[in-house]
């Protein structure tokens, strides 16, 4: 059974249609416990071939009505097998480069189902082209990534880069995930040096370049906390946060039950306090009206597309054209250029990754996208809010960016409740 299921999963991801299907769901109802290690080995021991980063959602448990279909040890055996192949738990994981070899547990209380999301390592044919779109240029004129530009910048420069290039909650979380990955690398380098081990050339280069990474992480986390408190999340961002925090409550409930069984009163008190903090955060998020991001010049864009549709219909009409029709068709190239200009305006870093959470659905250009001009260094673009603007759902308007204030103070971080991202 493990062979058949793994073959199905791998073949689906490797197929030509995998770019439109980077996620699969498989129900492990009546799946024998002894089959799980073999299944995890076939899927996770080595990189799988796919056209994009992927996720596999396994249904591993359910509530009272369907509980008998699932083995209660599914979660334990699966996570043990994943850790054997150096997978790590990441409660904010998604199908992206940074989340390869990660997994996360989810309890869907609406459907009363329990899931384990697995994000295997992927061998991607078109990976280079995907990375290039987000590339920027540093002060030396070298092509780099936004996260490396931020990691190398001074704290003052970093605050400026945040303000102009990472305006939304989900974009800040995307950057935070990458900065934490760099911190992990730096920590490993510190450990090597403390053990009197030499660093590899690439490690030494990064170790010398990255600066104040902990302060930068704290700054982003502080801004995220402020955005939650002030209600500057979209409906999609609110939904993701509530889902993750609800999953955390489920995990705390399991830990609390175990502590009760072991009669560890101090541990129970600690868990109760954590539960109160998580519930408070969920209540805060739910109490706020979501903001709405819209494309700048949206009305003009809708009008332009309507004109293009009419002219395309005229262009495809058979028969001779009148002089007036020829004159109208002459405007078509200019209209298409203007649509392209609006749709490809820079919306900040990680815009493709965060588009669904920001706009509700991914914004697809109506015409072929031009290559974006790389930005970076010490001169971030200033101006009219990039390619989109935010509108608060409440009557009061809110700013869309959150600039840093003075120095960065070390403070308690409620985002630790969600684990490292």
TrEMBL record:
Annotated segments matching region Disordered: 368-421
Coiled-coil ranges (or none): 242-317
Bias-annotated ranges (Gly residues): 375-388
Organism superkingdom: Eukaryota
Annotated keywords: Coiled coil
Protein name: Uncharacterized protein
């Amino acid at each position: 059974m493990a062979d058949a299921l793994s073959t199905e999963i791998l073949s689906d991801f490797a197929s030509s249609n995998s770019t439109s299907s980077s996620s699969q769901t498989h129900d492990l109802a009546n799946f024998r416990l002894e089959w799980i290690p073999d299944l995890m080995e076939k899927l996770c021991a080595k990189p799988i071939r796919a056209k994009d980063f992927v996720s596999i959602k396994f249904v591993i448990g359910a509530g009272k009505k369907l509980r008998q279909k699932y083995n209660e040890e599914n979660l334990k055996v699966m996570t043990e097998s994943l850790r054997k192949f150096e997978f790590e738990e990441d409660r904010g994981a998604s199908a992206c480069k940074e989340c390869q070899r990660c997994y996360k547990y989810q309890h869907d209380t609406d459907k009363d189902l329990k899931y384990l999301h697995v994000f295997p390592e992927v061998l991607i044919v078109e990976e280079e082209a995907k990375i290039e779109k987000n590339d920027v240029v540093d002060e030396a004129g070298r092509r780099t990534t936004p996260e490396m530009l931020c990691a190398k910048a001074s704290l003052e420069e970093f605050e400026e880069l945040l303000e102009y290039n990472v305006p939304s909650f989900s974009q800040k979380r995307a950057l935070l995930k990458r900065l934490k990955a760099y911190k992990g690398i730096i920590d490993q380098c510190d450990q090597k040096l403390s053990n009197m081990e030499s660093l590899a050339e690439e490690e030494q280069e990064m170790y010398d370049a990255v600066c104040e990474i902990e302060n930068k992480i704290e700054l982003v986390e502080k801004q995220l906390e402020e955005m939650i408190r002030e209600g500057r999340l979209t409906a999609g961002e609110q939904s993701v946060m509530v889902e993750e925090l609800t999953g955390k409550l489920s995990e705390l409930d399991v830990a609390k039950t175990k502590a009760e069984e072991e009669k560890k009163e101090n541990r129970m008190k600690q868990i109760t306090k954590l539960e109160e903090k998580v519930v408070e955060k969920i209540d805060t998020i739910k109490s706020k009206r979501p903001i709405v991001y819209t494309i700048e010049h949206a009305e003009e864009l809708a009008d332009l597309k309507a004109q293009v549709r009419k002219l395309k219909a005229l262009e495809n009409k058979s028969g001779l054209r009148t002089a007036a029709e020829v004159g109208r068709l002459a405007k078509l190239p200019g209209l298409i250029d203007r649509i392209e200009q609006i749709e490809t305006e820079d919306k900040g870093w990680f815009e493709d990754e965060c588009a669904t959470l920001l706009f509700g659905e991914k914004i697809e250009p109506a015409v072929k996208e031009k290559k974006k001009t790389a930005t970076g260094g010490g001169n971030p673009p200033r101006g009219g809010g990039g390619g989109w603007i935010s509108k608060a759902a409440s009557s009061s308007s809110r700013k869309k960016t959150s600039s840093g204030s003075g120095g960065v103070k070390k403070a308690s971080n409620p985002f630790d409740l969600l684990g490292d991202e």
